[in-house]
Structures are given as C-alpha cells and as structure tokens.
Design goal:
heterodimer, A: 165 residues, alpha+beta, Glutaredoxin, 2 domains, elongated, B: 518 residues, Rossmann fold, Ubiquitin-like (UB roll), 4 domains, 5-stranded mixed β-sheet, binds flavin mononucleotide, binds iron/sulfur cluster, binds FE2/S2 (inorganic) cluster
Amino acid sequence: MTASSTNSASVRVDAAVVRAIAAHAGEAGALLPILHDIQDTLGWLPPEVTPAVAHALNLSKAEVRGVISFYHDFRTAPPGRAVVKVCRAEACQARGSDALVAHAEAHLGVGMHHTRADGAVTLEPVYCLGNCALGPNVTVNGELAGRVSPARFDALVASVTKEGA
Amino acid sequence: MNTRIYVPADAAARSVGADVVAEAIVAEASRRGVAIELVRNGSRGMLWLETLVEVVTGAGRVAYGPVAPEDVASLFDAGFLTGGAHPLGHGVTEQLPWLAKQDRLVFARVGVIDPLSVADWQAHGGGRGLRKALGMAPAEIVAAITKSGLRGRGGAGFPTGIKWQTVLDTPGEQKFVVANADEGDSGTFSDRMLMEGDPLSFLEGMLICGLGVGADHGYIYLRSEYPDAERVLTAAIANARAAGLLGPNVLGSGKAFDVTLRRGAGAYVCGEETALLESLEGKRGEVRFRPPLPAVAGLFGKPTALNNVVTFGSVPAILADGPEAYAARGVGRSKGTLPFQLAGNLKQGGLVELPFGVSLSELVNEYGGGTASGRPLRAVQVGGPLGAFLPNDALVLPLDYEAFAAKGAIVGHGGIVVFDDTVNMAGMARYAMEFCAIESCGKCTPCRIGSTRGVEVIDRVRAGEDREKDTALLRELCDTMTHASLCALGGMTAWPVLSALDHFPEDFGSPGAAAEGN
Ligand SMILES: Cc1cc2nc3c(=O)[nH]c(=O)nc-3n(C[C@H](O)[C@H](O)[C@H](O)COP(=O)(O)O)c2cc1C
Ligand code: SF4
Ligand code: FES
C-alpha cells in the first residue's frame, strides 16, 4: 500500500465516523446506531473506529470494544467482496440446509466463517431469516433467496465465483 | 378504470422472485397496451403459493400462484385480467378454504391492503381501535386489555393487562413503550409478516399502549435480519406522522406519541426483554437481574411497557370490537387468536391465524398438508429453539398454553417446525446445545460453559464408548443448566435436548439411552 492510499483510507474512516456521530448526536443509547452506520458505509469497523467513537460518546475504549465484540453483526476484519450467508436454524435444517452448507463450502471453496483467500467471498452461518416455510434460505449481499437448491445456489453466486476465478 | 393487480412485496414472496414477477407483469401489460395498476401488498400467508398474484375482478380478488416470470405471458393469454381460467388459477382468494376457515384479527388486513397507504388502511378498518382509545381514560384502556385475557405473544405468555397496569401505576414523568421485534425463534415469521404487511396496525397497538400506560415515546427493536421490515416500517412511520397518527398531537387529541426504530445486531439473546433494553441503551446485550421488573424500571431506568409485535398487533381489535369479543375466542386461559406459523418440512407452509384450541394435527396435516418431502413425519418442534421436540402421538395436543406446559412443551411465539423421518434427533439435540453456546450472553457459567460441555457430551453419547455414563452426565448437565441459569436461554435448552433423548433414544445410538434417569 502506498502512503497516499493509506491516507485516503483513513480519511474515509474519519469521514464515516464523523458523519455517523453527527447523525445520532443527542440520541439516547446511540452506540449501536452509530456502529451500524459506520459499518453500513465501510463494510466493517476498522480499529480506528473504537477510540473515535469512545471519545465522542464519552465511553472507555474497553466499553466500545466490548459492545463490538458482543454482537455477531459487527465485523473487525473486512469481509469479502460478497457476503454469502446460509441459514442453519431448525426450520431450514428440516428442509436440507445441512447439505446446502456442505455444498456452499465446496462450491465456493471456502469454509464457514471464512473469507476466501482471493477476497471474493465470505461465507457465514445465520440463524433464521424469518422465511422458515420456504427454506433452505440464503442471503447474498443481504438479498434473501428462498427454496435454494444446489443449482439455485450456484446461480445465485455465479457473479461471485466468476470474479474469483 | 385500470385493472388492479396485487403482487406481494413481503420478504418471503420476494425470496422466490416476486419482484421479477411484478416487473414481468408491468412489461407484458405495456407490451400489450393494457392499462393496469400494480399494488405491492403483504402476503396472504399461503407461502407455498408465492408468488401469489391477485387480480381485482367483478367477482372479487382472484388468485394465481405460484407464478414465475415465465408464466406471465400465458396468464395474459388466459385473460387473467378478468379472472380467466389458467392452470395456476385458484378462484376467488377469500373463498380458498385455507384462508376462509381462519379467524383473522391481527392479520385481518395483511395481504389485503397496500401496507403503506393510510387511506387504504382506514378504508379496511384500520384506526378504529385508536379512535376508541382516544375517548377513554388510561385506566379504562388497561382494563379492556386485562378483560380481553390477552397474554404476551413473545413466548412467556404473561398477561398483558397486568403488565400495563404496573406501568400505569408506577409514578414517573417519563415512561416508554418498547416493541420486541427481535423474532429470533426459528420457525417464526408472524412479527415480520405483520410489520411488512400491516405496519400501521402494529403502530396503532403501540399507540394505544402509550395512551394506556402514559408513555409518549416508543422504541421498536428490530432484528437486523429483517431489512425489508426495516424499509417498510421506516416508510410507514413517516406516513403515519404525515397523517397525524404519530407526533405531538395524535389525531388532534392533544396527546403526543412518536416512535424510534432501532436495529439489533445479530444476537438471539437480545430478544430477552432485559438484554433488549441493555442493547437499546447502547450496551452489550446481557440479561439483567430481576427485580426490578422492566415495567417498574426498564429502558433508561424508566417504567417500560415491553411487548412482542403480535401482542401489540392484537390490541387494536380488542379496543375496536370490545374485550368480550376477543375473550370469547380460545380455550381456558388461552384467549383470543394466535397467528400460527407452519414451517420446516411441510407441503403448505405459511401463516394461519386461529383461536387457541386448534389441534397440532389440524395445523400440521390439514393446513400444512403433511410433509413437503412426502416422507413420514417424525418430529415437531413448537415454540422455537427452546421448545421441546414432540413425537407423532403428541399431534392430538390442542394449542393452548396450559395443555402444552403440562406436556413439558411450549406454544411460545406459535412457530411450528416439522421434520420428516430423515432427521437425526441426536443431531438436533447437539444443535440445541451448540446454539445455546453460540448465543449465550455469558453472564452465567451453567449456560456459557455448560452448553459447550453439552455438545461434547452428546458427541460422546453418540460415539458410544460409555453411553450409560455419558447419558447420565448429559442429564445432570441439563439439570444444572435448568436450575442455575438466569434466563430461559440457558434455562430451557434442556427441553429440546431431553425431549429428543426421551422420545427418540434410538437416534442416540441405543434404545437404552433413555432408560437412565427416567
Ligand atoms: C433467549 C430469549 C429470547 C427471546 N426472544 C424473544 C423475541 O425474539 N421476541 C419476543 O417478543 N420475545 C422474546 N423473548 C421473550 C421476552 O423476554 C419477553 O417475554 C417478551 O418480549 C415480552 O412481551 P410479550 O409479553 O408481549 O410476549 C425471549 C426470551 C428469551 C429468554
Ligand atoms: S442463561 Fe445464558 S443467556 Fe441467559 S443470562 Fe445466563 S448466560 Fe446469559
Ligand atoms: S430457520 Fe431458516 S429462515 Fe427461519
């Protein structure tokens, strides 16, 4: 990484943090909305976020770190260019999600909870998407897809796998 | 007049292509030079028929489904704009037995109206409960809820009127209403469908609660897995403000009520009411010790009426038509209706709202149509991940809080998950422990450590080295978790585990597995 790209990345982080804090200034219990806002913009929560948010909300860094680590949604490492989630909860299991998880891992070439080495895709479990009559369910970059057969899975992630190849 | 066509924008319908179907219909209509009006409604709840397209005809709304984009041209060819016959046609929607036999109070408008139109909502009876409530004293509102027998739909079944009474009776300048829209239980989606299909009625329930308990502000804690509900609620709140339903002067009454929508961050335990409050306050979602009750000292230490989405959704009808009409439905101490959610391996999954007392068998076999795979049904889990697994012979059970409790099971949020005979119940028991380990808030050792140990012990039982000893150990561990956990996550994980072991011992490696400890 060159000095200027490091710089522009940290400027981007600063801007996202400032914007999020301003948007929720004065709101009671604003930590989660602020963290969500920053992650919506940046895709994850880089380490510089913690001290900046702690300072703005008059919290300790440990408190902010504690909150970030508590919630499954908050990322402390950048995700792949695509995020694929497969529902592992009971109703989807009853419709074959275990086999779909195995298929997803094999097809994408990455294990659950991991980002592929080329950075193309992160594969994660999710526990119920509220579509339990039409499982197994998958989200690709947040878009919900139901009744996902292996063939439908391959079609859903086609753009992802192509990019990585 | 343009022919009006309904294509659901509910997340379930979108998950199987409703957006593409809607686009195809618009494109085909314009190609043929036909003028149509497309409305994106909620879902009627017949999820196996999604995408369910409805056309308004002289005979009523006529249903076609499941429609795929490639069916659209043939629907036009068949004259579906005037209700023409087509292989995907089902006739008049409201006459479909699956729908006609239901008793929809909470879901009366879901799938019927444009969820974002205040005018359409009012034309279909929306707001009647609120108007009544605006003419009543707070204590009268709470008394009506108490009289209706309404119990919390989030899982615990606590009488809503008693909770509201506590908030009303607790002195305080500032009180809050909080809606629990965390809906984390697998097999449940009624909160989501109500928020997406009739958000204004849900808000109406919160408003009536605010008038009853003396709160002028509400928070909605919505799980992050529901982005569609977030979009719909955001728009509905804006529309409600514009229409004067929310704001400093609700419908000109001089009373104020407004809401703030908050997004969760992927933690099952944040559905537990005190963990939810911690999360709303911007903290780790750790369960609080009780007392104090949230009704006395809840959000930011203020008296707080916290209820499930469907609990709020049940309120408008109680005010509009009277608590007696509500209490006349149901059985025993389970009054009114529950929107049951048919999920998992069922042919006809979806949402069925009926009075309590309907049997599990009627829901699973008649409404659900049996397993989707066509294989024999083996187990049913009611009430989410902390609910017991029930064998086939328990299908006679009526859906009633007390009848379920007597069998060591729960009705919970009304989710019913069906498994066919390919399920391995030892695997499901293991998953229950694993889920508890993943989602534990970490406050108590039996839950945090016990669940991880539980996974290991179940693995050892299945491996079978010393099955008798390990089975006894598993039961002991379950006992400790049940009795020494602060909340129901650690406290009820034993239910799915032990019910699997008791009813399906053969899956744990030997028929003797269950003998121990019985
Ligand atoms: C681990 C756990 C998860 C829960 N999840 C939810 C939930 O997602 N939604 C909900 O309404 N209640 C949930 N509850 C129940 C709530 O603690 C609380 O009883 C309920 O929201 C109160 O509202 P009600 O009286 O209207 O049901 C959960 C409880 C526990 C112990
Ligand atoms: S039982 Fe588990 S989830 Fe509940 S308070 Fe204890 S550690 Fe937290
Ligand atoms: S269990 Fe997968 S969507 Fe509910």
